[in-house]
Amino acid sequence: MKFSMDCELTMSKKLEGINIELLLNKSFDLLNKGAPPGAGASIKKSRVSGDKVFLTIESGRFVRPHDAVFRLKNFLSQHLGKEHHIGVKEINASHYEIEFELDKEPLKDFSLTFQTIPLLKEHMRSMDFKEKTCHMHMINLSEEFLKNNYVDRMISLIIDKINAQHYEGKAEHWELMWASPEKKNAWNKDPTVEMEKANWIMHRGRGQWIFGPMATRILKTFESIVMEELVTPAGFSEMVFPKAETWDIWKKSGHAKSIYGEIYYLCQPKTRDKEYWEDVIDTYKITGEVPLHLIKDKIKEPIGGITYAQCPAFWPFLDGRTIADESLPLKVFDRSGTSMRYESGGIHGIERVDEFHRIELVWSGYPEQVREVRKKIVDCYKHIFNDILDLEWRMAWVTPWFMAQEGLVGVKDESEKRDIGTIDFESYLPYRGTRKESEWLEFQNASNNGDKYTKGFNVKSQKGTELWSGCTGIGMERWLATFTAQKGLDMEKWPKEFLKRFGEIPTEIKFL
């Protein structure tokens, strides 16, 4: 890494008769503090004009100029303040050039993105890449810009963007762990289409479905199986997580880095006053149309969004707190409402929806406890999928994109335990084609998130050692898609163990 910054320090009054050069020479040790010998920052040029001190500061990886200049600010204020009553009023950087090496070459240009960010638009003069080297040139940086460490964050963002370009989806980090025997499937029809024909379900807007009595009974049977065979035996306690997630939650969970194109935003009205909304009400009464163009000016900026991943909303319950050993491993679950995720063009049938119903299990404890809980959960899933639902499915070890970007790709230890990452459960959908050529459906997963959440929410243990966490979201729509794709809609072909739990056939709604 190479850094070179031209900056100016505006003093509280003119520096007449003061030998600044001599004073700056005394700052050598200060600018090298915390760095290997000879690897700190250095002042390459300096001059004084009136009440300003102009400096060119250069450095490598350690004590970067935007850090060094604040050391100098304190140093000069301390030495000039006592004798001359002079302090540093303001810092500005007229030019800042940065060059750093990358692990990978960028696959496509993204430098123009920085020109569209208001914060950077007036400051970024150029950014270019030559093989694995990035060069940035910024101008007119304020003291606030330097102090808030935006420079280092930009470097990290560039590295993240390039790593993201090289992460081409789960297939790149996919490893088969186990597969069930091939099963004789009841049919090869698309269950969504057939359930619509049978009035079991009804499409009600983009990625949203109404489930009739029969489909709902299947979903509720899944839920009872989960409760009886997994949640209760594994000792999970029920909680209610909020379904409105505010920005502070997503900042700590890490989701705020990327989810803007996938969430349903929540906006509050600016007021409940009836007169304020009178034009909207009157327009609707006259036209019979909701005047969205009027509404958009009467609502506040988004406070966040509808729950996206379900478990982040739980973590404020632990935020900044210390968990007693007697409560570890902590095991809770939520089934109190829907989650929503904008899938754009990716919606399809009941297996990829915008609004979905999920039972979310979250656990936290010392690393070995987190591993053990996930192992028990995986064993419970095996029992349910093999012995009760009789599915054709497989398990794969994958790494979610957010972990891949952090370099956490499929960590194993010597005893072949799986650590940080996700186990995906995938099902064969006969209507999509052959087993080898068709895309299987990820209908379940179980994740070990390491310290991602416990660090983000500053959760501590009684012993003072690190805590980990895990989660598994049981998506009812995905289970329904898997079950009906393989077993069909004819109850006579459904597994006996499932039928034992199904109960009486619900009364269907008939239409004329």
Describe this structure in words.
With 512 residues, the protein is an alpha+beta fold. Helices cover 32% and strands 26% of the residues. It is built from 17 helices and 22 strands. The protein has helices at 20-25, 28-32, 65-84, 111-116, 118-121, 143-147, 150-166, 191-197, 213-234, 247-253, 278-287, 292-295, 367-388, 401-404, 452-456, 476-487, 496-502; strands at 2-11, 42-49, 52-59, 88-101, 124-130, 133-142, 175-179, 201-203, 209-211, 237-238, 244-246, 265-266, 304-306, 322-323, 330-334, 338-340, 355-365, 393-398, 421-427, 441-450, 460-461, 468-475. Strands 7, 10, 15, 16, 17, 18, 19, 20 and 22 form a nine-stranded mixed sheet that branches. The protein has a six-stranded antiparallel sheet with strand order 2-3-1-4-6-5. A three-stranded antiparallel sheet has the order 11-13-12. It is elongated. The N and C termini lie far apart (75 Å).
Q: Which key phrases capture this entry?
A:
single chain, 512 residues, alpha+beta, nine-stranded mixed beta sheet, six-stranded antiparallel beta sheet, 17 helices, 26% strand, elongated
Number of DSSP helices? 17
What can be said about the biggest beta sheet? 9 strands, mixed
Nearest-integer average pLDDT: 91
- Strand share of the residues? 25-35%
Number of strands: 22
Q: What is the 3D shape?
A: elongated
Tell me the span between the first and last alpha carbons. Answer: 75 Å
Low-confidence stretches: 405-417
Query: By helix and strand content, what is the structural category?
Result: alpha+beta
Q: What is the CA-atom radius of gyration, in angstroms?
A: 30 Å
Helix content: 25-40%
